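Protein modeling request. Please complete all fields; requests missing the sequence field cannot be processed.
Requester role: graduate student
Desired output: 3D structure, token encoding
Chains: 1
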Amino acid sequence: MRILAHSHPGIERVGRLRWPLAGIGAFSLLGMMAAFATAPADNANNVAQQTIVETLDALAPQLVGVSADNEYLREERVQRGDTLSSLLIRLGVNDAEAFNFIRNDPRTQQIARQLRPGKAVSVRTGEGGDLHTLYFPLNGKDASLVVERRNGRLEASEQAMTLEARTVFKSGEIRYSLFGATDTAGIPDAVATQLAEVFGADIDFLRDLRKGDRFSVVYEMLQHRGQFVRSGRILAAEFVNNQKTFTAYWHTTSDGHGGYYSRNGESLRKAFLRSPLEFSRVTSGFTSARFHPVLQTWRAHKGVDYGAPIGTSVRTVADGVVEFAGQQSGYGNLLVIRHSGAYSSAYGHLKGFAAGIRKGTSVQQGETVAYVGQTGLATGPHLHYEFRINGQQVNPLAVNLPPATPLDPKQLASFRNSLPAQDELMQLARQVSVTTSE
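Delivered output (438 residues):
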């Protein structure tokens, strides 16, 4: 087997390497490189040599048991403007049958639609460029589309990726916005969104942020065959907002459910979210007298309007059961969810409902249940949100929301036992140079 133009991160740090590796010779090369890295040298050489050793060590499992037949492993990242043909040519595929199969087979046509720049695609080919196997990661799935030649015929199938988690430590400082700071710090948007959700009950990320606020975060990055696939969950985080420090630690209870807790073991997951939209702006508040833009008269507005584009996801503010999903006079498309006790919530002017949402459906806090629209008596796209107690609307931005269920004594003891290890992770994150968003 031969490995060409492999874009493993270690290789990228020392330049594009091309190694002919086959059978026993590959293992001999590994041994020589390991011995070479122990020889005295200056610091720069040691770094480069160690990078090569780490790269070869990572590739070694792929070489075990491989025959000495001439087979090549090539990996390339999709470039902006790539087509299916240009990508396969750069991968060294010289196989008309494979081109036609990938272009025309119904299972492989999604490859052309998912050529996202930066995606790592790899192939195994024969010496003449005939395709043996192609691995193409699929968008939105922890799976790859695999095209392989079996018994002389090409076949395509989805195969689940075996993901490994790596822990990442980052810090940042707010200059203008949360996403500006996380972008500058190289933190994925999905992690930034999690950060806002974790601390969302204590910090209003639209109105409460201050220039100079700082954060440190420990999170997982999931990788497959040495390539990062997507971010995972936040493990620990700290946010200093207006000189007040908030902390969050992930903890899994004995029943398998996980959540975020403060150092005192208090759940950061409130029984109710303050807002049904992740990021938006209030366009009309809760009031006893508002001039209605459609009816052209003064009347009470017993809800909060959030401006957002049509199609924006609406999430339920708490666990509950759908009580009503349909059209209702001025509300247009309306969704009403019954929560525990005397609480319920209503979402109006919707474009439509999420799949499976109907009367009697159970929903979980934060789940997408509908989409922002402009139905009913609405002059523009927005969400009308109501929070109700015993059927009466109350101001959701002012009401004291009930707390979530606390940890029982046994689980609290388990959480406290895990704190020393969690604190070590946070200390490492704090030591990362704070990056200021411009």
